[in-house]
Design brief:
The chain has 346 residues and is an alpha/beta fold. The chain is 27% helix and 13% strand. It contains 9 helices and 10 strands. It has helices at residues 15-24, 44-48, 124-127, 141-151, 183-195, 224-239, 243-246, 271-281, 299-318; strands at 4-5, 8-9, 133-135, 156-159, 200-203, 216-219, 250-256, 260-267, 332-336, 341-345. The strands form 2 sheets. An 8-stranded mixed sheet has the order 5-4-3-6-7-8-9-10, with helices on both faces. Strands 1-2 form a two-stranded antiparallel ribbon. Strand 9 (332-336) and strand 10 form a beta hairpin. Helix 4 packs parallel to helix 5 (183-195). The longest helix has 20 residues, at 299-318.
Amino acid sequence: MDNTINGINTNVLSSEAAQFIETIMGIEPITMESSQQELEPVDLNTVLNTSDEANTAIYEPTPSTEEPEETEQEIDNEADVEEPQQNEDTSTEPESVVDNSIRPNSNTLLVDESSSRFSGAIWADKIREQEPILAGVGGIGSYVAFLLSRVKPYSITIYDPDRVDNTNMSGQLYSTNDVNEFKVNVMGRMMGLYSNYYNVRCYNMHYDAGALTSDIMICGFDNMAARALFYRNWIRHVSRKSPENKKKCLFIDGRLAAEELQVFCIKGDDGYHMRQYEDKWLFSDEEAEETQCSYKQTSHCANMIASVMVNLFVNFIANQCEPLIDRDVPFMTSYDASTMYFKTVS
């Protein structure tokens, strides 16, 4: 037999090369015996198990040196050894698959997501027992009210008789959509929308001598007469407390110019600073320093004083939780935006 193709002796070629030459030259392939056993085709989808129901995890099948066997559709239930089989029903993931991804929290966990970022704080549970009263929700109080709602006290009571107007856009936490509405109503709605907080009592009226009092009272007034009345109501409330419960009372008074702020913080058992506040800092409106009408409010300093006031409230509550080191609750905190200088007096 002549095994020469186009001058090439195929006897010296491998069987694969000879078949290739014969194919491209249009010559009928020569059947050659081989000692290798032909492998049956394997369905790739079956091996990788890539149906929609099985796509929850990606894994590589365990390599095998054995030839794939045909899968039996039914297995004898009484067999001593059960052979693994591949089934077209891929709804159950193979046991060898391990999903190392981080799983979400159980839906059964009772977690308030709006406070979950600080739920581990030492003061988080204790602060939920507090019922602060905030008088005035203007340049100072609007920001204080919002930040208070974020730390989730048991309740918040707010007083203010005013309605929102366009001039409030320069330094208070209101929008043009709120114009002509009572500030306390707007603030109550805002607490629900932005803090998921609804336990707020809103009084669209002046705070007077017969108004509510509480252990925690926060002053956001912009005049000295209202400030003095609010303070005296708190003093009367504290005077009815036992020495132990006086320690749980706190008065916070914030005062704000355009770029300067002062915060006074008095504890219920601190007679020294009560007298200092009354003698030196509770002066009349006539004695207060006049400011320019066009230089009274800035939003960034209003936001800053509110942060300081709520920080003092949180520190005061934290100190009731037996911390390793007591937190600072200074009598006076001041800040000058032009020098960015903070000063505290204990």
